[in-house]
Amino acid sequence: MTSFIGAPIGRVDGRAKVTGAATYAAEFRPPGLVYAALATSSIAAGQLTALHTAAAERAPGVLLVLTHLNAGKLPYQSPAARAAVDPVAGEQLRVLQDARIFFSGQPIAVVVAETQAQATYAAALVRATYAVDTSARTQFDPAQARPTSLAAAKRGRGPETRQGDPDTALAAAPVQVDQRYVQPRMHHQAMEPHATIAHWQGEQLTLWSKSQWVGNERDAIALVFGIPAANVRVINPYVGGAFGSALRTWPHVTLATLAARRAGRPVLLELTREQLFYSIGFRPRTEQRVALGAEATGQLTAIVHEAVGQTSTYEEFAEATLDVPAVTYACPNRRTSYRLVDMHTNTPCPMRGPGHVTGLLVQEIAMDELAAALQLDPLELRLRNFAERDFRKDLPWSSNQLRACYQAGAERFGWQRRTPTPGSMRAGSLRMGLGMATALNPAPRYPIQASATLLPDGTIVVRSATSDMGPGTYTSATQVAADTLGVPLGRVRFELGDSALPPAKEHGGSTTMASVGPAVQAACQDLRRQLDMLAGRPVDLTTTDLPGLLRHAGLLQLQASGSAGPNATPPTHSTYGFGAVFAEVHVDPDLGIVRVARLVGAYDAGRIINPRLARSQCLGGMVGGIGMALMEEATWDPRFGRVLNANLADYHVPVNADVHELDVLFVPSEEPLMNPLGVKGLAELGLCGVAPAIANAVWHATGKRVRELPITVDKLL
Ligand code: MOS
């Protein structure tokens, strides 16, 4: 039996996805299904004074119009039952519970009708009048920023961390860089919109609902409605991309559930593309100052990194923006501070490497600025400040192949051909620029349970309530199971996305392979042990008559279970994924158009279970990084507290024509301490470092340092 670990297996769910057999949240069709549509607030702050729903109620096919006037009080039990992915302070939006308006785009009515078109039409007939709060905070003003709460501080997102005497060291440093950087509000833009189908059968509630964490959605809705979690089942076998947007349970899930209970029919509520800018979260705008002090040798002597993020007025979403800057480089004097601006907007949420990616983004641009000031090669500067351990936590790395990443990436890219002077390289009539950045992403893991069941026909079903939003959990978990059991892949079926399965934590934070993988391995090892005991000898699962063995033992099936994680506390080591990203850009000197001609990323993500899927994840990260560097930006209108480009035509993301040569390398690596599979998780690591490498390459091509992303043509002319 060949090993499946490390094999480039194609997606086991690939056929179902490309033939349309895969069923997404909005595609289930319980009998009697009816359709919902939202009416939303057109003001950013204030009170509803009147709601005119008569026209909507009279419209064809309409069954129900729900507003705060007839929705009834929902229990909203204990906000203490906050999930790990929820904001640490504040109170979730209690939708349709009163007349208060906290942000533009807030749902104010739900219309249920026999068809989607009827519901959408009738929702457009709902008219509202408001008492507008003229002191609404719709302008991002860093001067208004406040320190984070105690709860956030406890999670390491405190207002300030300090080592040594950074301000004195900065002032004394012979070479200094001190700049401000802005990264705009961004939206996830998953292909599949968020959708929930709610179906009550007596006291039992089934939700088919887009989710990266079905167990959490079950618990969250049970608390909102004050019902036992055991009465709720959340099912979501396929997710069409989510990028963090489906970690939380958003208000539309509550609305679908409420509407279904009132209508006495199953209800589908699918958000429109525009509603996705308001009814779920987003990556918050962040303004940062980075000040670096160094000796003439390039040795860092001081790092000051201050970040101001944004949150809503009703919840505190605090990001780990300064986690990565606190550990990337060796430096004796370091200070970080993190503050928040409360605004009349919907609450932000994790998006593609929340915090980590944006803190790293500006750090790596600042490092490039320092290299230029020192007249030192940017890669050499990073090598001279290599962190031999996690100095912040004073822990050794569990594994660290960053030097190998630098070397392999530079070699593959041809970094040595870079001439230092900006604008000194050409690609035909275009300016060529080469830039690089370090990538670093924390690699935690969560406690996960899994089961492995031998069925009478010899199939082994492995189950865990995790998710697969695209990275390939179905496939990699199948590989781990088949490998552990010593059976062909086709004998294993992996099931996920159902809260009735053995509990898992969020499919996020680049944790799934490192968390679910070992649990699957443990469950399959347990199944092997049980079979060996039944047979009274070690069993070869490919040659043994397993159905016969079951029959002989008088069993219909044989079930085993396993669990894994979390890491030991207090931690003995610090675990991160590492990488080095190199970018070549071509810039039209007359038009300012930037083409990312080539990206090379070299990564240390521990053992790679499936190099084909791992490469695919990094390609996705690179495409996301092109968007972050050059395109992605929600244009915010501070007069109304709304996004001006709340659609996929005006909110730009990279398309095929924007994507050229992408090259992904994995350096040999095994994580010996964190889990028995030797993996560190990949995912968000693939986005880390891409945008700053591109930004640095644009500077090298043009001599223009753009510190407010995205780098659009107007900023280069
Ligand atoms: Mo990711 S932002 O943890 O889904």
UniProtKB/TrEMBL annotation:
UniProt protein name: Xanthine dehydrogenase family protein molybdopterin-binding subunit
Any matching Pfam family: MoCoBD_2
The species this protein was found in: Hymenobacter setariae
Annotated spans, Disordered: 139-168
Gene Ontology MF term list: iron ion binding; oxidoreductase activity
Taxonomy, superkingdom: Bacteria
InterPro entries given in the database record: Ald_Oxase/Xan_DH_a/b, Ald_Oxase/Xan_DH_a/b_sf, Ald_Oxase/xanthine_DH-like, AldOxase/xan_DH_MoCoBD1, AldOxase/xan_DH_MoCoBD2, AldOxase/xan_DH_Mopterin-bd_sf
Domain Aldehyde oxidase/xanthine dehydrogenase a/b hammerhead residue range list: 19-134
